[in-house]
Amino acid sequence: MIEQVITALKECVDRIRTSTIRRTDQQDAALLAILAAVQETKVYIRDFTHRPRSPDKEAELSRLWIKAAVPVRHVDIDLADRCLLKAEYWLHPDEWTGAQIRQFRLGLDNIHEYCKQLLRE
Prior knowledge:
Elements: H1 2-47, H2 55-72, H3 77-91, H4 98-103, H5 108-120
Helix pairs in contact: 1-2, 1-5, 2-3
């Protein structure tokens, strides 16, 4: 009887450990994806002050934000929604107002700071 209980407890601990590792891997993948999107966007914004905007690069940024949204949904669904909105923004940046960007919390600094908080958790 005691051996069965010990075996069951070991199995339970193993499941918890595996679940925790999987969760940590998901969090790492999500944060890596979103921080890559933030970084690429910052590089683009920095560079287009020296040259004209690039619709091709903006489409690439849109795809990068979509790719970030997928793993982020496992960590924070609100942040995943913001990534999708950021992807929409880069498809048509001229159609967005500063008020909308603030309303939906799409500013790069806002998203970056939020990710830094997630890194500390």
